[in-house]
Design a protein that fits this description.
Number of strands: 5
Strand order of the largest sheet: 4-3-2-1-5
Order of helices and strands: HHHHHEEEEHE
Radius of gyration: 24 Å
Distance between the termini: 79 Å
Shape: elongated
Largest sheet: 5 strands, antiparallel
Strand content: 15-25%
Helix content: 55-70%
Oligomer: single chain
């Protein structure tokens, strides 16, 4: 059978043939690349306006991982020889996400709290705040806000590193500027 006859017979779109496997691999790679590219372009346009640099980087990395994992699982599920692998990957990803979630509860809590602090912006870098720390009430200026921690610089030039879950759950007094 000539290559033209194979194309006309639809053999290259049949995931059970070698041509179909290669065709769908190329399609999934192209769709994954285009998805990641459009995500990057969208985040670059939103950066500086709606999103700050930290949030945009976090979303870009998370999006890249999700696109590749989704493409791999869908591809493995489409190809008959890999279907059991695709089901195993999907099951494994589900179990792994539950185990990782349980093992990293406080870290994920800080991450989610950091994301909400970046989204809702109750305070910004440079704001003067007063909060309760183990040594008592402290006043300082927000020096940095990452996805896991908020760094506060005191007038004595000490740094207080506060987990974002604490920053999101306690009352913070913002001083007028």
């Amino acid at each position: 059978m000539t290559p033209l006859e194979r194309i006309l017979s639809g053999e290259f779109v049949n995931p059970g043939t070698l041509f179909g496997v290669i065709f769908y691999a190329l399609v999934f790679l192209l769709v994954a690349w285009l998805s990641m590219r459009s995500l990057r372009v969208t985040l670059e346009r939103l950066e500086g306006g709606v999103l700050d640099h930290t949030t945009a980087n976090f979303l870009r990395r998370m999006g890249d991982v999700l696109v590749w994992v989704l493409a791999l699982i869908l591809y493995a599920h489409l190809i008959p020889e890999l279907r059991s692998l695709g089901t195993a990957l999907l099951t494994g990803a589900s179990v792994a996400s539950v185990l990782i979630g349980l093992a990293a509860q406080s870290t994920l809590g800080n991450l989610i709290a950091g994301f909400s602090l970046l989204l809702y912006r109750p305070f910004q870098i440079g704001d003067s705040v007063q909060l309760t720390v183990p040594s008592g009430v402290q006043t300082g200026t927000i020096a940095d806000l990452t996805l896991g921690y908020t760094i506060i610089r005191t007038p004595e030039n000490h740094e207080i590193v506060v987990p974002n879950s604490v920053m999101a759950s306690q009352a913070i007094i913002k001083s007028p500027e």
